[in-house]
Amino acid sequence: MKDEQIDAVAKILKSMSHPIRLKILCLLQDRELSVGDIRNEVETTNANVSQHLNILRNQGIIDYRKEANFIYNRITDKRILELIMNMQKLFCPDFEK
Questions:
Q1: Average pLDDT for consecutive 10-residue bins of the chain (97 residues)?
Q2: Cα angle: 72, vertex 58, 26; to 5 degrees
Q3: Whole-model pTM?
Q4: What is the number of structural domains in the chain?
Q5: CATH number reported for the structural domain that contains residue 59 in this entry
Q6: What is the dihedral of CA 54, 52, 47, 32, to 10 degrees?
């Protein structure tokens, strides 16, 4: 790998490494979710969820769409979906997909 590739991958992995962000990505791997849905699953505040979502958006990992008063988030980088699935296979012995 070239230095710029290593830097880019390290930046993405760093943004994914926080437990709440990793949980958000696991939740988003199968479907879009609203901020409220994510908040309920990770059991934190809307403001905290929004901060974590902004970090993931800034890295180009997720995107969102607005529908009425709701914002729905989704993973846009297919490599992230593959990475999450591989992590689950490696680290979650009861994982089945």
A1: 92 94 96 95 93 95 94 94 93 75
A2: 50
A3: 0.89
A4: 1
A5: 1.10.10.10
A6: 80
